[in-house]
Amino acid sequence: MPKFFYTDCVITDLKQIYFHRDEFSARINGRTAKRLTMPHELYHLLMAADRSAKRRVWFYAPGFNKALVIAAVQPADHPHNVLRNRAFSSPYKMMFRTLLAGVLAWFATWALLAVPVLSWYGANAQKAVPLLETLSLQIGAGVALLSFSYWLWVRVKMHRLQRWPSGDLTPYTQATVPAPEAAP
Fold first, then answer.
1. Which residues, listed in sequence order, are joined to residue 37 by a DSSP beta bridge?
2. Would you state the pLDDT for residue 124?
3. Are 42 and 73 in contact (CB under 8 A)?
4. Residue pair 171/3 in contact by the 8 Å Cβ criterion
5. Which residues contact 8 (CB under 8 A, 6 or more apart)?
6. With 0-12 CB in 10 A as exposed, 13-18 as middle and 19+ as buried, what is 32?
7. How far apart are CA 178 and CA 173, in angstroms?
8. What is the pTM of this model?
9. Could you list the pLDDT tens digit for every one of the 184 residues in the chain?
10. Which end of the chain is more exposed for a tag (fewer CB within 10 A), N or C?
């Protein structure tokens, strides 16, 4: 289940994990977060001159061992300005993800049900193909509808940051192990 929460924290040691992706590792309140996702404008805000300032940060944890997403950041010097993650407000990305989910479900239905349906009808494959087409179109449309409703729900949640509860980052971070001191 996805979780939406905010916390006041200090984010330091921000490093990009993959060169072509927006995944980062960071230290949040002295603990290590191995996978954070954010757009470059939020990255540049967090890497600004005052890195040690405490900021209010809104997080979105999608679940299923996915990266923790930074949804918005409130700069320390501008308490009424909130910089949001624009990846969730793009209607093109939302429609593309919906269509992709529907097409993949349609194709997977064909791949998984072709052998059982055709073997059920035996040599009379002319009657099996319309059933297979009907099932695959219904399942593909259903998955696309569920995907669209999920992304719409996430988009609405992203626009209502003031309603998010305060949360704890402990489940998403690890305690940093101090480096052993070298013997003289």
1. 23, 69
2. 76
3. yes
4. no
5. 54, 55, 56, 57
6. middle
7. 15
8. 0.79
9. 789 999 998 888 888 887 778 889 999 988 999 999 988 888 888 887 677 788 899 999 988 888 899 999 987 777 788 888 887 778 888 899 999 999 999 999 988 988 888 888 777 778 888 888 899 999 999 999 999 999 999 889 988 989 999 999 888 888 877 667 766 6
10. C
Q: How far apart are CA 88 and CA 70, in angstroms?
A: 11
- The residue with tokens 């609405």 is 156
Q: Two tokens at 159?
A: 């626009």
What gap in Å lies between CA 12 and CA 62, rounded to an integer?
A: 23
Instruction: Quote the tokens at residue 90.
Output: 């793009």
Q: Which residues of 118-154 are buried (b: 16+ CB within 10 A; e: fewer)?
A: beeeeeeeeebeeebeeebeebbeebbeebbeebeeb
Report residue 94 as tokens. Answer: 């939302």
